[in-house]
């Protein structure tokens, strides 16, 4: 129960940052500030900043998106959402890995993510 509450708080924090990044993007203010916000949120929730996550291989990234009970698909989707918005090639690749892993574990993905995964697989 405590572990679940902790993960839900992490997901909520990542969702707040995603909302701010999307707001900045809408105002054409997608700047280094948005990247910093993403990096800080990832460091706060996962213990690794964006640059470190972008250096990880698939298995390491999956391990970071979990807790004692193993891989957490909902947390992975939240991380993937942020990485996709960051937009670099490495971030987009890792977002794809996370969405794919979450989907195979039965997680609910936003429609845009499902469409995007389908486009990437083609």
Task: Summarize, please.
By secondary structure, this protein is mostly helical. Helix content is 76%, strand content 3%.
Description:
The protein contains 7 helices and 2 strands. The model has no long low-confidence stretch (mean pLDDT 87). It has a two-stranded antiparallel sheet with strand order 1-2. The protein has 122 residues and is mainly alpha-helical. Helix 5 (73-86) packs antiparallel against helix 6. The chain starts with a helix and ends with a helix. It has one domain (2-121). The chain is globular and about 40 Å long. The chain is 76% helix and 3% strand.
Class based on secondary structure composition and strand pairing: mainly alpha
> Level of helix content?
over 70%
Strand fraction equals under 5%
H/E element sequence: HHHHEEHHH
Mean pLDDT: 87
Total number of β-strand segments?
2
Topology:
Blueprint: H1 2-26, H2 32-46, H3 50-54, H4 58-64, E1 66-67, E2 70-71, H5 73-86, H6 89-104, H7 111-121
Antiparallel strand pairs: 1-2
Helix pairs in contact: 1-2, 1-5, 2-5, 5-6
């Amino acid at each position: 129960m405590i572990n679940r509450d902790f993960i839900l708080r992490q997901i909520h924090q990542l969702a707040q940052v995603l909302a701010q990044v999307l707001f900045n993007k809408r105002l054409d203010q997608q700047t280094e500030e948005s990247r910093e916000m993403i990096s800080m949120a990832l460091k706060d929730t996962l213990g690794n900043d964006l640059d470190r996550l972008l250096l990880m291989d698939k298995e390491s990234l999956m391990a970071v998106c979990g807790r004692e009970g193993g891989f957490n698909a909902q947390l992975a989707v939240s991380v993937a959402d942020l990485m996709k918005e960051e937009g670099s090639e490495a971030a987009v690749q890792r977002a794809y890995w996370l969405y794919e892993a979450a989907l195979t574990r039965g997680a609910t993905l936003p429609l845009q993510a499902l469409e995007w995964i389908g486009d990437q697989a083609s």
